[in-house]
Structure formats: structure tokens, C-alpha cells
Amino acid sequence: MNDIINRFIEYAKTVTASEVDIPLAPELYQMIQSCNKIENITNDVIDELNELLNTNNVRKGNYLFSVLLSLVKDDYCFRRFAEYSFEHRFDLNIYEQYFLYSQIRGKAFMDGYTLPECFEEWILEISAWYIEYFKEELLPITYEKRNRKLVLVITSQFLGLGHSPSEVVMNVCKGLILSERKVLLINLADVLSQTGEFNFLCITPFYREEFLSTSIQNYENVCIPFLQCELGMPNVNMIGTLISEICEMKPEIIISVGEDVFSNVINEMIPTCSIPLNNDLCRNYTRYLVHYKDLKNDEKRWLCKYGYSEANIIRIKLPFSIRNSEGILRRDLGISQESFCIAIIGNRLDKELTEEFLQGLEKLLKECSKASLLIIGRLNSKAVFERYHCISQRYVHIEYTYELFAVCKVIDLFVNPPRIGGGTSAIYAMAAKKPIVTLDYGDVYQNCGTEFGVKTIYDMINKIKLYMEDDEYYSKMAELAFSKAEKYISKNNKNMTNLITVLEEREKAISDYEQSNHSK
What we know:
The chain is an alpha/beta fold. It has helices at 2-14, 26-34, 43-53, 58-71, 75-87, 94-111, 118-133, 164-178, 236-249, 261-266, 297-305, 330-333, 349-352, 355-367, 389-393, 404-408, 423-431, 442-448, 457-469, 471-486, 494-519; strands at 38-39, 72-73, 147-155, 182-187, 216-219, 222-228, 251-257, 272-275, 288-290, 313-314, 340-346, 371-377, 395-398, 413-415, 436-439, 453-454. It has 21 helices and 16 strands. The chain has an 8-stranded mixed β-sheet. Helix 8 links the parallel strand 3 and strand 4 (182-187).
């Protein structure tokens, strides 16, 4: 470990304030490509790194931090990186700020870091810049002038079927359409935006360019009108075009699924309702926030800090449905009928299959000859498995499938790697009566509850063994998983109908109050 860190330190010393494009040493490059991050750095090394990276040149500092965090996984290093970027934010233009902000958020999500509180202020500042820029165009459209049958739905990333957040968005649109509303879905495509990119080892966004020529998304026998922005948001030209189009459409309400800058901007003109992609409160600065669980202390603090009251919260459960597909057999996937099949599902598995997790799986497979692995999702580098003899001999990999529920029916267990996301695929597994094993944090843990959570990778391996050895325990937990899944799955369309009803009632009340005051 120290050899790699020493190589990084020597490399960093060669990077001048004005020149940050010196090629990486081959050993560092290979380390980054292998996704074999170093953990548990010693304090003396951290002190040396901190002194080295404490530069007033924001471009040099952020570039070196991006290299370091591609090599190591360390909470202190990440927090210092995030705070350093925030402290020096005004040395960058607004596009560069958003690029850096979104990259740091992406790293936090992928590696399980917690963002410092200053990031709440940063995205508010970025949004405020755009609001000020467009202040003459952002004239509020009164309730009476809006089209009561039209709802605009916006999201930061849309990748279609097989991408869990996209399916959440399509469920929202489907619910609105079945509630007899006209809908237009707009993919802002601003997740990990490359606009403003400077020299930085960045996370590349997923983007389906073919959707630029698509005007309809089909989902469960429903046609959803669709528009995708070109890569480059939040760009003032694109935002200006969208504002003009919305002025013409005058939708009754705008629903934002996830968190984005544009929802904060357009909220100045049309009241916007933010729906989260997980169980946490959505940190958009819009008029309405959907949240159906009890608020956590940090969520209460955030609401109080930014002047929200219960009138801004709408407690309605997210719509979620499962395509009840059949017909996939184990032999179709190359899985032995006799094996105990452990499924690992995700779109960022190159990042999420950590060394500790893989070492635990290797130990399990060595000790349990009956166990096998089914890896489902994007996996750019399978070389990571070559270091593990048992894994390399007993895993099957398939790309992310549109028939996820059918695949979940033929597995035995859903095992969640160390990560924040993955909540939707866990619901599919539970709906197929498959137990979950997850560490006690993140979306999967929130969805399945404490009964399926463990503290460490060591505990995770022991829990998998218990499921393999104790049929009675397995059956009991399978039924519990199914009962938890039922709470998420929509049996009808009432949730979105109720959401629209609540929004209309609140908007009508605000309109009546404003008219009453005006008449006085």
C-alpha cells in the first residue's frame, strides 16, 4: 500500500500549479483501472497527503484529489476533497462549479461517502445563479392560467427499461396518464454533466444518444410522450429554450423525480413537486416535497433551515409496479439446478464489488461447494475475478435484463454489495420471495429493514451460510421478504391520483388566499 501512496506523492510533487496534465505513472494508472482501491490509510500518510494537496490553485488541487480518490477509499480524504472544493468554488465559473459538484456527489454515491453539510449551500448557490440569470423570463404563471390536464415530469437521468431509477420515473408517468392527465417526460441528462469539465479524473455519465430521436417511451402498455436534452445541461441556452416551451405549455404542475438544478429554477414560474428516487427526503428547493416515511433528524433540520413546513410535505407513497414475467429457467442462464444461487445486481458493479466483499465471497465459495454466483448488470472489467479462483470458476454474468423479476424467481438469495443504491432491484427480489443480505445502510437496507441487515462483510458471509443450511429459517425470511415487497407494489393507480388531488387542493387554496388579499 505504502508503495502506491509513495508513488502518488512523488507524482503529485511533479505537478505544477499551471500544468496538471502530466501522464500518470503506469503503476498508478493500472491501479485505477483495476478498481482495487486502498483502504485504511495510516494517519501519518494522511497528514502528508493533506499538506501536499493544500494548494490555493483549485485546478491543481482538485485534479490531484481526483487521482487520489481513484486510488484510495478513505472517508477523511473524501471529506477533505469535498470541503476543499467548496472552499475554492468561487475560483471556478458556474459550469465548472456544477461539474465539480456533480462529480463529488457521484463519488459519494458510488463509494458510500457522506457529503458535508456545506454541499446543501453549494447547490442552492448554483441554483440561485441560474434563477438570477433568468429572472426576467421566470414570471409566475397563476393557477387560473395553467392547463389543468397537463403535467410536466422532469428527471436528471433516463436510460429506459432495465434502469431502476428510469422505471421509477415511468411508473410516475404511467400513474399520471391513468389519472387522465396529459404528460410530457423530459430527460434533463444533467447527471455527472461534462459541461464545465476541466482536467480531472471524472466519472463518465451514462447517456443513450438514440433517445434524442425518440418522442415516445413505451411502458407497460402506456405511451409516454418524451423529450431528451442534449448532453450539456445545465446550460443557459438549453434552460432558456425549456423555459420558453414551458411558458407556452403552461402545465398545471411540474413533477421532478430526483434532484436537479432545473427544478429549483422552474419552481419560480410553475410550482414544482419533488419526488425522491429512494426513501430519503429529496433535497430540492421546490414548493412541494413528497415523503411518506418519518422524517429523520437531519431531514427535519434541513426543512427548518430552508423554511419548509408540513404544508410543503406531501405524504404519498411512490408508485411502483413489477412486470409479472415468466418463462426463464436456470438452464437458460447457465446456472446449475442443484446450486444455491446468490444474485448480485447493479449498474456500477465495477465500483461496488470491493476487495473486502470479493474476498468474503471467495471464502464462502471455498467453504460451500453448493454456492454459485449470478452477476447481473454492467461489468466492464471481468479481470477483477481472475484473482479469485473459486469466483472465477463459479459465476455467471448477464447484462442488466428487462425480465429482472423472472430472473429473481430462479435465484435463491439477493446479496447487496457495499453501496448506497440498489433499492429497486431488492424489491424485485423480495417480490419473488427471495431473502436479502445487506449491510445496514443504503437504499436496500431501508427497503428491506433491520431483519435483513448485518454489520460487516464477515456477518454477511455467515448469514448467507445460515440461509443455505437452515431451510426453516429460509422459508420464514422468504415470506417476510414478500410481505415487505407488497408494501411497495402498487395494486392500483390511487397514489398518483391522490398526489394530483392534494396538489390541486393546495394550489387552489393558495390562489384563493392571494385573490382574497388582492381584493382587499
